[in-house]
């Protein structure tokens, strides 16, 4: 894996690099002459409407702010909702969230393909926003209509773990709500930021300054929204009612859609210019057809490959021919009858350009880093669910009357992230740069490695503390199973996880942006979501395996046979904990 050591700004928000900036051979050949004569690559339609610029920003940023506040406010406390209102055990609720989150994180790949290849960003955002609204309305109705969720649990039922669970119909409504939300995220996540960038003319200095300013405002509002969602919205859900706590985000989503459509007269609409996924498929198909072809020497290879100019296309950075993954290079070798007299390809699934081949090589080069990120993100996924469960079984009082909502503890990680990033960027990196002579202070691979170390430490600390918390709950024998330990003792593991996110997530974003050319930045961004999706699925698998083997081992130790279909939560009620330990 290579890293680009060329000069760049240290900020991870402004990264813009080529894949591997090496010079290619300039020798001429009949194939080259034909390509240079016609400069044939896929052409794009030039939009006639003038970019809206800052005139469209109140609608774009307003839509973004309301949409994110609605979505994050709805999802920040979903674990508590499933445990308290649907009476799910922890394992089942965790698996529901992990599988749904994994599906939601894979969705942007499909949304990006539909947007880029078929209907464009505006229509994708419009349909996705409506889908999100339908999902929020459905979920709000589960809180407002008693028949759509299990009946309330009495104190005696709660202590005996005899609360009625959801019926198949009630689960069906819940899954339908989450499905609509996944569809909405599939369209909104890959298109929201690029749609905002489309509103500026990147060919002018004013437009480029506008884009930079838009990024700053975009991430500023994102941070503010997270803080509001994890505090105010979660507090309303815990302290007032779930109807209000879910209804407010739903209303905000409705306002977001209205604001989005009000700005239709000033938006810049960029037509779909083709998807990167089609090019990837074409490269593999052409390479497979030519799998028996013997490549010429490295000196002769530049003369026999299809390498047209990228002028007049959506591609702004041309990648040179490399000799790594030579089996893919065969897809660009020109055979008789594959290129027309005008220099165009006769069959896109038989011959590919050097640009297409090198883009696929960029993808293959990052797969090891992508796979290793799944392991790191699994710990983040685990703490996103089980930390809430831990908090529910601890003393959450802050003063005589106020209780910290369990879903608000994520603020600790966010504060850690917010305080560490400017310190790292403005103070630590300049000092490290003097020692290492590296522009970023340390390499991106080192940065991601440090993030993995912090994620491991966070899980180790969480495991040690959970042992103490559970022992305290058993020792004090409280009827509700709550340990008399302050919930703030969860801060160390959350601080460590915040540092893991600061190193790993930001490092991965910057790494992907450096490894891909300009027009693949959106695809590079989607790889981060795919990493999260893989972590969600792996987390669900680990939870199921550990839960199944733990239950079986407990019954083997006692010489009993488990009842089929019996559910035993990881953090069981005190009565069960005492029974098992005795």
From TrEMBL:
Transmembrane region(s): 126-148, 169-188, 217-236, 243-263, 402-424, 444-465, 486-506, 526-546
Compartments it resides in: Membrane
CDD domains: MFS_NPF1_2 (cd17416)
Any one cellular-component term (Gene Ontology): membrane
Protein's membrane topology: Multi-pass membrane protein
InterPro entries in UniProt: MFS_trans_sf, POT_fam
Principal location: membrane
Single Gene Ontology MF annotation: transmembrane transporter activity
Entry keyword Transmembrane helix: yes
Pfam family, one: PTR2
Name the UniProt record assigns to this protein: Major facilitator superfamily (MFS) profile domain-containing protein
Organism, as annotated: Aquilegia coerulea
């Amino acid at each position: 894996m290579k890293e680009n050591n060329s000069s760049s700004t240290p900020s991870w928000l402004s990264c813009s690099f080529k894949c591997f900036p090496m010079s290619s051979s300039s020798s001429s050949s009949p194939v080259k002459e034909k390509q240079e004569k016609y400069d044939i690559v896929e052409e794009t339609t030039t939009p006639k409407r003038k970019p809206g610029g800052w005139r469209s920003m109140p609608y774009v940023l307003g839509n973004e702010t309301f949409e994110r506040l609605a979505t994050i406010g709805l999802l920040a406390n979903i674990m508590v909702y499933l445990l308290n209102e649907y009476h799910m055990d922890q394992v089942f609720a965790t698996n529901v969230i992990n599988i749904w989150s994994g599906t939601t994180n894979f969705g942007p790949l499909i949304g990006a393909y539909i947007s880029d290849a078929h209907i464009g960003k505006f229509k994708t955002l419009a349909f996705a926003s409506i889908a999100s609204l339908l999902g929020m309305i459905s979920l709000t109705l589960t809180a407002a209509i008693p028949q759509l969720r299990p009946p309330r649990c009495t104190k005696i039922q709660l202590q005996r773990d005899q609360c009625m669970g959801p019926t198949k119909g009630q689960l069906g409504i819940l899954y339908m709500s989450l499905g609509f939300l996944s569809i909405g995220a599939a369209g909104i996540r890959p298109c929201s930021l690029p749609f905002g960038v489309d509103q500026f003319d990147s060919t002018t200095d004013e437009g480029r300054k506008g884009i930079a300013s838009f990024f700053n405002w975009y991430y500023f509002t994102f941070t503010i929204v997270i803080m509001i969602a994890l505090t105010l919205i979660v507090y309303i859900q815990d302290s007032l009612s779930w109807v209000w706590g879910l209804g407010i985000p739903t209303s905000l989503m409705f306002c977001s859609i209205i604001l989005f459509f009000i700005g239709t007269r000033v938006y810049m609409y960029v037509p779909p210019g083709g998807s990167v996924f089609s090019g990837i498929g074409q490269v593999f198909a052409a390479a497979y057809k030519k799998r028996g072809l013997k490549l010429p020497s490295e000196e002769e290879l530049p003369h026999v490959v299809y390498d047209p100019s990228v002028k007049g296309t959506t591609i702004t950075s041309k990648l040179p021919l490399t000799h790594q993954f030579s089996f893919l290079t065969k897809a660009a070798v020109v055979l008789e009858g594959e290129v027309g007299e005008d220099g165009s390809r006769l069959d896109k699934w038989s011959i590919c350009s050097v640009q297409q081949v090198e883009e696929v090589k960029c993808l293959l080069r990052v797969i090891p880093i992508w796979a290793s990120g799944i392991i790191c993100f699994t710990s983040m996924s685990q703490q996103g669910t089980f930390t809430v469960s831990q908090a529910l079984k601890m003393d959450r009082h802050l003063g005589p009357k106020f209780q910290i909502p369990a879903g608000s503890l994520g603020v600790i990680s966010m504060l850690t992230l917010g305080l560490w990033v400017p310190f790292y960027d403005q103070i630590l990196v300049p000092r490290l740069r003097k020692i290492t002579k590296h522009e970023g202070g340390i390499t991106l691979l080192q940065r991601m490695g440090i993030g993995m170390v912090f994620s491991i430490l966070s899980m180790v600390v969480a495991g040690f503390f959970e042992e103490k918390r559970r022992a305290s709950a058993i020792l004090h024998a409280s009827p509700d199973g709550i340990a008399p330990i302050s919930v703030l003792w969860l801060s160390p593991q959350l601080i460590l996880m915040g540092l893991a996110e600061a190193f790993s997530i930001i490092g991965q974003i910057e790494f992907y942006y450096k490894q891909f050319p300009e027009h693949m930045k959106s695809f590079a961004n989607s790889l981060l979501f795919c990493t999260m999706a893989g972590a969600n699925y792996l987390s669900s698998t680990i939870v199921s395996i550990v839960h199944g083997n733990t239950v079986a081992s407990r019954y083997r130790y006692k010489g009993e046979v488990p009842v089929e279909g019996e559910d035993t939560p990881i953090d069981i009620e005190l009565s069960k904990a005492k029974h098992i330990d005795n």
